[in-house]
Design goal:
Helices cover 33% and strands 29% of the residues. It is α+β, with helices and mostly antiparallel strands and 158 residues long.
Length: 158
């Protein structure tokens, strides 16, 4: 799937395990720290496991052949219907403001709709003003909700 932008083309791919090549691993080494300072680096095996996880679709955006961003679309059935959640959206700092995030998000919404998802949700920190404007421009509506997080004790993780 490709999106033509002024002076550049953004190509969106849904990764399969065979698409996890050295250039994709290196791209994640560059992109993940721009999203989270605490997230551990992902090697090829870890990326393949994420790509293979049921319900996950890992999208990447390429500009002129180089990976410029990524997004993970998670779909899951619950009693009220199939839901979709967009997670871990990151666009390389050098490519921000050029339509990469919009192309990734539009493709994720398209895939979720094709799957029959009733809703597509995402969260974004208030400090990410440009991202929040983008999501609203793409039709996402701010919900009056509280997000709670339970962090598992360290002994559960080891």
């Amino acid at each position: 799937m490709g999106t033509k932008l002024i002076g550049m083309a953004v190509e969106i791919e849904v990764l399969s395990d065979r698409d996890v090549t050295d250039d994709v691993v290196k791209a994640f080494e560059r992109l993940l720290p721009q999203l989270s300072r605490s997230a551990p680096a992902l090697d090829a095996a870890a990326l393949r496991a994420l790509v293979a996880w049921p319900g996950n679709r890992m999208l990447i955006a390429r500009v002129d052949g180089e990976v410029a961003g990524t997004l993970t679309l998670v779909t899951f059935p619950i009693p009220t219907g199939l839901r979709a959640w967009i997670e871990d959206v990151v666009v390389d700092s050098a490519a921000r403001g050029q339509g990469v995030g919009a192309a990734l998000t539009r493709e994720a919404v398209r895939l979720a709709e094709m799957d029959g998802a009733r809703t597509v949700d995402l969260t974004s920190r208030p400090s990410r003003e440009a991202a929040n404007r983008l999501y609203e421009r793409l039709g996402f509506q701010l919900r009056d909700s509280k997000v709670y997080r339970y962090a598992a004790p360290e002994e559960w993780i080891s």
